[in-house]
Amino acid sequence: MNWITIVLKKYATFSGRAQRAEYWYFVLFYLVGYFALIMLDSALGLWSKEAEAGVLSSIFALGVLLPFIAVATRRLHDIGKSGWWQLIGFIPLLGGIVLIVFFARKGDAGSNEYGPSPLAPDKASAVGFG
Q: Can you give the pTM of this predicted structure?
């Protein structure tokens, strides 16, 4: 649950880096929440077959769209890539596969142009202050 709150606290933060766990736990939260709300929409009669959308699931999807893009950007930063690489996802099949490979890659060790490694120990504790 901590990973989800980290992402939501950084709602629209596109700078910095995100480790794999932060990204993948948020993906899991999104998928579970979205499909649960689809079932709830269907049970409450809020699902539209014509539009193939439900009221609650659509509100949820729109509500987490910005943090989803932000955590994906930070995840790409962790491997030394620009957040603009997300646009490759618009290429059918190939783009999605490339993004999954990028998101699954281990982050750069140490600092890169987007900041320090999210796995690096705290600077204060490394110096002996905490």
A: 0.86
